[in-house]
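We both want to read discrete structure tokens more fluently, so let's practise on a single case. Would you write everything just below, so we can both look at the same thing?
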Amino acid sequence: MTGNVWRGAGRRLQLQEVGTRDGLQAEPVFVPTEEKIALVDALSDAGLAKIEVTAFVSPQAIPALRDAEQVMRGIRRRPGVVYTCLVPNVRGAERAIAAGAGELNLVMSASDSHNLSNLRMTREQSFAGLAQVAAAARAAGVPVNVSLSCSFGCPMEGDVPATEVLGWCARVVEELGAGGVTLCDTTGMAFPTQVADLTAAFRARWPRTDLTLHFHNTRGLGVANVLAAIDAGADRFDASLGGIGGCPYAPGASGNVCTEEVVHALQLMGYDTGVDLPQLLAAAHRLAGLIGHDVPGQITKAGRRLDLHPRPADFDAIRERALARAAG
């Protein structure tokens, strides 16, 4: 791009960490409770605006997050950080509220095939369940965000019409009274012009509703989609430490957009993410040891753009020989 199109000029963006839920739930190993707490605390200290700490689901369904209450009660709450939790039903909402969740994140799909495959319900059945959860949250004074999976395409149906996605957004905002909506690229099918169009349409219709974009890097377009969304008016993005996470309908794919990669790119372009990148990288360097395998993120491997390397040990001799050849 040329000119100032991609220059942040200090514009503030909200980076929201989902690795401690969306990432860890997909891992076959159980990360010890105290390590989860330490990781959330490190992410808080690094300056993430929101952290999806865990999910209040059945331990049989997601054993990796069976310690949800202990983690939520053990973390250190940093002023200004929103600590959100995924909840699937009223019972999960009650547990999350009792454990001190600052927000409830509810999920359904914009695609009926994905909703049936993933949640075992039609979209109407899911929406009815979300309405019950939203009522419980309202009674407790806890804000609600609704995440719409497959907003940019369904792995079984293909493209999901923007009118269909926006129709569900309307019901979420106007019927449920959700304060925030997350448009999720669940299997990494989004592309930049599509992202820009859907983002602009949402912002024009609901300018006072918090809009979050949730991208996966399945096909290598994650950061490009973030930039397209920013240009269309978005300012809130989910990302996952190390790029972990994923979806069973995108086998072999990389996970969510990587938090440290997104922060690194945005800071180079002049955006204010509020994140301390060295502290974030310190947390990312611990991740592989916790989950027992390498992670997709590249910044922990290659370093930041200006993390320079020493010259060769014989650099002075090389230079002298080059100068001698030039003079002779």
